[in-house]
Each structure stands twice: as C-alpha cells, then as structure tokens.
Specification:
Order of helices and strands: HEHEHEHEHHHHHEHEHEHEHEHE
Number of helices: 14
Strand content: 5-15%
Mean pLDDT: 95
Low-confidence stretches: none
Helix content: 40-55%
Structural class: alpha/beta
CATH architecture of the largest domain: 3-Layer(aba) Sandwich
Largest sheet: 6 strands, parallel
Shape: elongated
Strand order of the largest sheet: 7-6-5-8-9-10
Distance between the termini: 50 Å
Number of domains: 3
CATH superfamily of the largest domain: NAD(P)-binding Rossmann-like Domain
Number of strands: 10
Oligomer: single chain
CATH class of the largest domain: Alpha Beta
Length: 348
C-alpha cells in the first residue's frame, strides 16, 4: 500500500480546499481509513487542520479486453461512504452512466472495499469448482460440456464462469484470492474454501501438460509442440500467471520445443522469455503447426474456434490435438482422422 499512501500524503500536502478522495483500486479492507489518517496527519503537519475532506470507496469492475464498455455501461456502481454530502456528489458524477435504471449501491466504506474482493473471489471459485467437476467427469466417464449445459440452465447458477479449462490467470483473480486469504489470516480466520480454490487453480494449470506427458509416455525430449494461445484469456496480451506459461515451462523442462502463436501476446512473450532455442514465435496459427508433434490450445481466441482440420492434420507430424479450452466437438475432430484430448471429456 505504500504507493496508495504516498498519493494520500501528496494530496494532504497539496490540497488547498475541501476535497472528496475516492479510492478506485482493489485494496485491503480498511485502506480508506489509512488514507484518511495519512491525509489528516499531513494536514496537521502543515497546520491546515481547518481543511475538510472525506474518503470514499468506489471500486472499479473493469474486465481486461472490455474496460471501456464496462466503464460506459456498468452493471453496478458501488459507493462506500458514510457522508450524505459525498453520496450526493457521487450520484451527480455518475448520473450520465445511471440513466437506464438505478445501478448505484451505497454502503459503508469497509463493505465497499470488501465487495470487490468478494466478487472476484466468487468468480474464481466458480472457475475452480467447474475445473474440479471436469477432472472428476473424466474419471466417471461423463462429458463436462453436457454437464455444464445442464447446470447452467438452472437460473440460480447460470452459464457465466462455468467453462472448464486450464484455470484462471491475469492480474486480478490470483492476486485477489491470495490477498483475501492473507486478510483472513490477519484476523485469525481460516479461509478454507479460498485456499482450496487457489490450490485447485494451481494444479489445473498442469492438467494439459500431464495429458501430453502421459500420451507420449514421458518421452518429450526432442519433440516439438504447436501452441495456440499465450495470453491468460482472449482480447488481451496479458500473460501474467497465464496457464500457457506453466505449460511452456513444463515442456521446456522436459526437453521439448514450442512453436507458439497468439493474436496479441507475441511481443509480451518475447519480453518475458527473450530469445530461446526451444521457443519459436510464429506469425500465424498455421505456421505454428508445421512439423509439430501435436497441437496444444491454451487460450480460447475466436480465431482458433473454426480452423481447417484438414490443414491441421496435414501440418502435424502426429495428428493429435490437446485442447485446454474445449473449443471443438470431439465427433467432428475425429471425423478428420485427428485424435482429440480435451478437459473433462473422454479422449476421442
């Protein structure tokens, strides 16, 4: 929090009139109180305790890849304040974004700070739950995609965030789950569910490598794998805690090479890993296939969802796909003479 508190100190040092300070970042519960104390202490040092101010929490709910749309058309507007004056100002500020129906929810500051963490941890929980069900479905001979449709049709559950895959990554979910676990430890509360969510997610990132390793009986040295997708999700170049990183690093450790393509994350991958003899960044998804022993899919970009299976079969030295995002219908893939392994479904 040192950067947040440094900004608070700067505000206290420079302010010359009444102010409303709004915290937008995802911060631990109680941060606004610390901001308020730091500003007050700085004003006292200046001898300007006559200056009035309030600190409110207004956490952002912006998704990577759709931040502008989320800003212009928010699902909800959370405001944490105990001041009627601050609430009035915030309502006026958000009036242009709140015309269709009432989206603003006003609560106390600590609850607003906690809401952001609780929301992200709930979504992470849904992802880890579905991945656990997918792994169990494989053992039971069930098809997790059919199960997903079945449970998603229940309006109490819905279809969002119940897609099985390789786990969550990025800058928010991993950080926020860990932060809330640490916050719980600080008040001597055992966050058993959150710890399980994180543990399942960490293990899930290795599921695709384990499938490949079993298929080739642990003999990966000298083999080359095509990899479609590097970013942790589509519509971004963000590779922070991306499943593709865990997958590539495991392949390299086993002595394999990777030929990778991603519509946005190529430069980011280069910045992270530099030049390596066991990594070839390709200009197209087709180029990544040439001569590879298998195709692996780590990100569900739309560009990957309707490929030429004839071209895939012709380009690969072994016609096999390991799909970490369940992009294809197994029956269609096998019709082209390609062996298909996915998440939570029997190999086809």
């Amino acid at each position: 929090l040192k950067y947040v508190l440094a900004v608070a100190e700067a505000i206290g040092r420079e302010m010359a009139g009444p102010k409303i300070v709004v915290g937008k970042s995802t911060v631990p519960v109680g941060t606004c109180e610390k901001i308020k104390a730091r500003i007050a202490a700085t004003l006292k040092e200046r001898g300007r305790e006559d200056l009035t101010f309030d600190v409110a929490s207004n956490p952002e709910f912006l998704k990577e890849g759709s931040a502008v749309a989320d800003c212009m058309k928010p699902d909800r507007i959370i405001v944490g304040t105990g001041s009627e004056d601050t609430e009035a100002v915030m309502r006026e500020l958000y009036a242009p974004f709140n015309r269709n129906h009432e989206k603003m929810i006003v609560m106390d500051v600590r609850s607003a700070e906690f809401t952001k963490y609780a929301a992200n941890c709930m979504l992470a929980t849904k992802i880890s739950f579905m991945n656990e069900m997918a792994n169990l479905a494989e053992e039971l001979g069930a098809d997790i995609e059919e199960v997903r449709k079945g449970i998603g049709s229940d309006p109490r559950i819905g279809y969002h965030f119940i897609y099985p895959g390789l786990g969550y990554g990025g800058s928010c979910f991993p950080k926020d789950v860990r932060a809330l676990i640490k916050t719980a430890e600080g008040v001597k509360f055992d966050a058993k569910l959150l710890r399980a969510v994180e543990e399942r997610n960490n293990e899930q990132k290795s599921v695709l490598f384990d499938k490949v390793n079993r298929y080739f009986k642990g003999n990966l040295k000298g083999k080359t794998f095509a990899l479609w997708g590097l970013a942790f999700k589509p519509n971004t170049d963000d590779m922070r805690e991306a499943p593709a990183r865990v997958l590539m690093e495991a392949l390299w450790k086993a002595g394999a090479k990777v030929q990778a393509y991603d519509p946005e994350a190529m430069q980011e991958c280069q910045a992270i890993y530099g030049l390596r003899e066991d990594l070839l960044l390709c200009g197209t998804k087709e180029a990544a296939l040439r001569g590879a022993d298998a195709l692996m899919i780590a990100t569900d970009w739309k560009i990957f969802q309707a490929p030429s299976f004839d071209a895939i079969k012709d380009a690969l030295s072994t016609p096999i796909i390991f799909d970490g995002r369940n992009l294809y219908d197994p029956k269609i893939v096998t019709r082209y003479g390609i062996e298909y392994h996915s998440i939570g479904r029997m190999a086809a």
